[in-house]
Amino acid sequence: MVAVQEEEQCVPASPFSRLMHTPNFNLNVITIMGLSSTLDVNWIKHSVSESLARHPRFSSLLVYEDEAKYKMSWKPTEVNIDDHVLVPDLDPELEHEKGDSIVDEFITKIAQTPMDLSKPLWELYLLNVKTSNSASTAVLKLHHSIGDGVSLISILLACGRRISDPEALPVLPESKKRPVKPGKKRAFISLFFSLIWRFFLMIHYTLVDTIEFFSTVFTRKDANPIKGDKGIEHSPKRFVHRVLNLDDVKLIKNSMNTTVNDVMFGITNAALSNYIHRRHASANDAPSKTNENGANETSFSLKSMNIRGVAAYNMRPSATVQDAYEVMHNGKDLDLKIWGNMVGFILLPLKLRIHQDPLLYIEDSKAVMNKKKLSYQCIIEYHIVKMLIKILGMMKTALVVNAFLSNVTFAFSSVMGPKDEISFFGYPLTYLAPTVYGFPVSILIHFQSYANKLIVSLALDEKLFPDPHELCDDFQNSLQIIKDAAIRKAAVQGYKM
Question: Which neighbouring-strand residues pair with 435?
Answer without folding.
Answer: 30
